[in-house]
Each structure stands twice: as structure tokens, then as C-alpha cells.
Design goal:
The protein has about 300 residues and is α+β, with helices and mostly antiparallel strands. The chain has nine helices and ten strands. The chain folds into two domains: about 70 residues, TATA-Binding Protein; about 160 residues, Ribonuclease H-like superfamily/Ribonuclease H (Nucleotidyltransferase, domain 5, 2-Layer Sandwich), CATH 3.30.420. It is about 45% helix and about 20% strand. Strands 1-5-4-3-2 form a five-stranded antiparallel sheet, with helices on one face. Strands 8-7-6-9-10 form a five-stranded mixed sheet, with helices on both faces.
Length: about 300
């Protein structure tokens, strides 16, 4: 379902002063047409607050404005990104991973169960794909989810990851094993048979891993699976586990281990080897990455 070209909501007119100050800082041009408290314009966005308290947001960039400013700063909730009539309210388990593309740190797979009431809670928490959130927000939201929801997090640190990779000889099969492990634990705990994952390989790969664990579930594998709100919640749990895992390794070896597979990673790898020796590299890095040869 396409979102409407304009977003309209009633707010307290007393918020006008704060909004005007905020929008000036963000580079908006302000004016005051008839019957308005203000109108703010910027490329791709027009935001108009009428004297009645009606707020209208229009323009091609309105969605990001609503999600990243209006909801958290003015409305006090985050629901626009998942309008209720667009959400599947079926109780289900969502699964996602983090750390797959990072040389340093663990591979983390998280599963999250949510019933209908809990799906509404996820909406109120402002759950969306973890790639669109900074680490502080991810950690904060993940803590709330872990407190109030049934979930399972499989955190595979490099030392174990490298052993498993040698065993599976294929990243997708390793990922499938991790997904099946996270699903197995949560399905047994909740009795839920409905599962949706962010598809990362041929469907048969995960189905085979589930069969090996004796699981027969209603599995949906979807590209851009994080667009499902329960998968998005699992994505946040997985990302939080990765962030905390790489921080733990950084503290243990007294060296900041960067995320990703960039030039910074190569420099950090060289520093690590200089301090701890190449033999210890398997404790912090995924050794099958081609980047490793540049350390």
C-alpha cells in the first residue's frame, strides 16, 4: 500500500515555537501564510502548521522527516513507518542477522516472537530496520525488547565462527545453521509455528538446516525481510549483540576493532598482529575474508 502524498495530524499549537527553532537549525526557510502559525520549506519537504493545530507535511522527502524528526521530537511516538492497516498482525517469529559482512567481531543471529498485542508494542517502540538506526538507539531499543519479549540470540565469536566455517565450507550454510538454532530455541519456548526471515540464500538452504533439527514450520523467506516489523525487531537484537560483541573484543585486546571491511580494518589488523601475533587473529577476525591477506 502506497503512503499518501501528504501527512496530516493535529498537534498542540504551543509546539510551534520549538518546531520553528528546530526547523531553522535544519535549514528550512520559514514564512507565515494566512491562517498559519508558520510554514517551513526545504528541498522535498513543506511543513505547515495551521492556527487550528493541524500540521501538514508534504513532499518527496516527507517520510524521512516524519520518521527521524517529527515522530521522535514532536509526536512522541513512532508509528508512521508502519501504519497499522499495513501491518500483518499474525503472531510470528522474525529472524535476522548482523556481522556477516564485518571482518572483526561475532556473527549474530536473533529470533524474536511477537503476538498481536506485542506487534502493536513494536510499532510504539519505533522499530525499523537496524541499518537505519545508530548504535545508541539500537542498544536502547534492544534492551527494551529483551525485557518484554521472548527472543533468542545466537552470538558466534570469531574463534568458534572460524571452526564452524571450516566445517560448513560455506557462509550461507553457516548462516542457515545459526538461523535454525535461533528458530529452534524460540519455537520450542513459544510453540509458535509461523516464522519469517530475511532471505539470504536459496530457500532450500534454510529449509535443509531446519529439517536437520527436526523442525517442520510455516517458513516465509523474504528479500528485504526487515520490512516486516518482527524481523526488524530481530534485526535490532542481532545488531545490538554484534555491537556489544565487537566492543567486548576491543576491550579484551586493548585495540579498537572497526566494523566493516574497509581500509581502517586493514590498519587495525596490522596493529593487532604487531601486538598479539598472527596466530591470535582467529580470536577477533573471520579468517575467510579476502581482506585478511592484506593484514
Amino acid at each position: 500500500m502506497n503512503k499518501p502524498s501528504s501527512f496530516v495530524i493535529e498537534i498542540d499549537p504551543k509546539l510551534a515555537a520549538k518546531m520553528k527553532e528546530d526547523l531553522k537549525r535544519q535549514g528550512f526557510q520559514l514564512s507565515q501564510p494566512n491562517y498559519t502559525l508558520f510554514q517551513a520549506k526545504k528541498t522535498g519537504i513543506t511543513c505547515t502548521l495551521y492556527a487550528s493545530g493541524k500540521l501538514m507535511v508534504q513532499g518527496k522527502n516527507k517520510d524521512d522527516f516524519i520518521i527521524y524528526y517529527l515522530e521522535p521530537e514532536i509526536l512522541g511516538n513512532l508509528s508512521y513507518s508502519y501504519p497499522k492497516n499495513d501491518i500483518d498482525m499474525t503472531p510470528r517469529i522474525g529472524v535476522d542477522e548482523a556481522g556477516k559482512g564485518d571482518v572483526f567481531g561475532p556473527l549474530c543471529i536473533a529470533s524474536l516472537y511477537a503476538n498481536e498485542a506485542q506487534i502493536e508494542t513494536l510499532v510504539k517502540l519505533g522499530i525499523r530496520d537496524s541499518k537505519r538506526l545508530g548504535d545508541p538507539a539500537i542498544l536502547k531499543i534492544a534492551d527494551k525488547i529483551k525485557k518484554d519479549f521472548e527472543c533468542s540470540v545466537v552470538q558466534i565469536f570469531p574463534e568458534k565462527y572460524n571452526v564452524l566455517y571450516e566445517q560448513f565450507q560455506n557462509l550461507n550454510r553457516l548462516l542457515a545453521w545459526g538461523h535454525a538454532t535461533a528458530i529452534d530455541e524460540l519455537s520450542k519456548k513459544t510453540g509458535c509455528q509461523e516464522v519469517i526471515i530475511d532471505q539470504f540464500a536459496n530457500e532450500v538452504v534454510v529449509e535443509t538446516a531446519l529439517r536437520k533439527k527436526g523442525l517442520s514450520l510455516n517458513l516465509t523467506q523474504r528479500t528485504k525481510g526487515e520490512e516486516d516489523i518482527v524481523v526488524a525487531g530481530a534485526s535490532i537484537l542481532a545488531r545490538a549483540a554484534f555491537v556489544r560483541g565487537i566492543e567486548k573484543l576491543s576491550e579484551r585486546f586493548n585495540l579498537t576493532l572497526p566494523k566493516g571491511a574497509s581500509q581502517q580494518v586493514i590498519l587495525a589488523g596490522k596493529k593487532f598482529i604487531a601486538s598479539h601475533g598472527r596466530a591470535a587473529l582467529d580470536q577477533v577476525a573471520k579468517l575467510h575474508f579476502k581482506t585478511i591477506k592484506d593484514f
